[in-house]
Amino acid sequence: MAHTCSRLAQTDPVAASSQPVTAQALKRLIDADRRGGKPPLTFAMVFPFSTHNYMLRYWLAAGGVHPDRDVRIVVIPPPQMVEHLAAGTIDGFCVGEPWNTVAVTSGHGHTLLTDYEIWNNKPEKVLGVNASWAVQYPNTHRAVLMALLEACRWLDDPDHRREASEMLAAPDYVDVPADIIGVSMTGTFKYAQSARPLPRPDFHVFFRYAATFPWRSHAIWLLTQMMRWGQIDTAVDIRSLADRVYRPDLYREAAAVGFDFPIQDEKSEGRHTGAWTLPGSRGDIIMGPDRFIDGIGFDPADPLAYLAQFELRSDRFASSQLQNLNSRT
What gap in Å lies between CA 101 and CA 110, rounded to an integer? Predict the structure, then answer.
């Protein structure tokens, strides 16, 4: 978003140069455009039910920008993001690497902030399978989980990141030069074409901090965002749904041979600015920061109170319906 970035700097140089960058400068730019009769800015993300969508929306809303009223959000496949940005059909995007680095390196974009700066060590990719398949092929499912755990442990070794970058650069995979993929893979990040890469050791976390564990608190948080932005049009029993989809019991079965794992299914989010520990099957597990950009914490035991505090939202059902389904006696 090179052009939009320069406009942000002109509109509010203090907010645009803060670290991390908030959406406050964008809010002022949007208000000025509206007064001038200009069309809304267009931002892209990869899929409506993606963390990219929720991170983009969370950042916008935290700065006072309503994602459904103040801007236009569209879906574009990741490899096409930079092309659309260069063509001017979008003003910015939220996407995974290496496409941010591609935009910066080519001079077509400037990264304002990373998703780590929106939510430290947030969840990202998941392995999801059909429930009936998991029941029919439990041994295969367990073997796949074990292989994934081993791969993630291998990837988290800094000595393997260059090799992984070379693998991903192949035409059948990402098809982007290994040196571009390696910028973030080796623990750095480049925000602007003329800037030096900065150390970002937790930009990619594949295994440490219990990164592979299916935290039900993550499922509950994601459900609050789906409700907040109108993706769920009827009230649901949040905990029941989270318990059905996220299966730490199956994870522990696969991890029991050779891997440490948390003994609890949930944890608070947004409370830690540095390293902390929680109980594991083989002793304490070191965890990383988990702060949100707005400093708000999340208690999975009370998702309704968490959801109720946000003024900017697009929910599509009465809070009383949600309360009735989620009351615990």
Answer: 9
